[in-house]
Amino acid sequence: MESTSTDRFFVSPRHLAGTGDRLTDVLGPLIHLFGWDHVHDPASGRISVDSPGHDLLLDFAPTHAHGTWWTIAHHDPLWKITATRLTPLEPLAAITQALPQLLGDTRHADRIPLTARSVPEIADLNGWTTDGASFTSPDGHCTMHHEPGGPWRVEHSVYDGFGTHWSLRAEGDLPEELAAQFLTFLATPDPVERAHGDIPFLALSEARLTPLNGKQPLGAHVTHALGGLGDAASRGRSR
Question: Where is each DUF317 domain found (predicted)?
């Protein structure tokens, strides 16, 4: 049966899933758990969130279909993260939820654990390959670049980026913990939940989808995981 736009699926890998609808996971903890000031413009949808010491600003500006929707800027030391529209919200939330601890606010640290692994360790654990300066996903569609002293760049595309392209760029003295947080929640094989209509069209033929409203005897999560094992076995035989 053909899927409707509201049917929900487990989707992996995460970099193919599109942005998703869990905006509250990115902004909510800062506002409601940590009490950061925020301003919301209902007309444009823009939301700005300011840390208590005014040294870190998060700006969500959904004003352009293919433009920069996210900016996270720290003043001293100076660094800035920008991300485009289709960047998955789960790894973005991993960054924003880590910000209070980065500023010394350890309240709720038990609820928001930070990874102890480095970017190379996370990449290797999840089957991403490296040439020393870049880490590439197993399907080749997503790459994290970083050279000493240079910016962090995460770039994703399918079919030369048409319709499914997103990117994140971090300039300045970015704490590596934030890069590790992002990759931890991007590279994990655990699926994310999406409405069918929110999955980028060209990603539908590349991603693994398991319907949540279907009748899987083992449950959707187990069925999806078993599908991943089958994909891994196929890749192994093709080598």
Answer: 136-192
What would the pLDDT profile of 6-20 be if each residue is shown by its tens digit? 899 999 999 999 999
- Quickly count: other Cβ atoms within 10 Å of residue 98's Cβ: 22
Q: Which helix (H) or strand (E) holds 58?
A: strand 56-60
| Stated pTM of the model | 0.88
Low-confidence ranges of the chain (pLDDT < 50): 1, 217-220, 223, 229, 233-235, 238-239
Distance, CA of 96 to CA of 112 (rounded, Å):
11
Angle (CA) 90 79 67, round 5°: 55
DSSP string, 155-201: EE-SSTTTTT-EEEEEEES--HHHHHHHHHHHH-S--EEEEGGGS-G
Q: What is the pLDDT of residue 213?
A: 73
SS (H, E, C) 189-227: CCCEEEEHHHCCHHHCCCCEEEECCCCCCCCHHHHHHHH
| 116: its two tokens | 């102890």
Instruction: Name the token pair of 198.
Output: 């929110």
C-alpha neighbours within 13 Å on the C-beta side of residue 160: 0
Over residues 111-157, the pLDDT tens digits come to 999 999 999 999 999 999 999 899 999 999 999 999 888 999 999 99
The values of phi and psi at residue 230, to 5°, are -65, -40
Q: Which two tokens stand for residue 221?
A: 């999560």
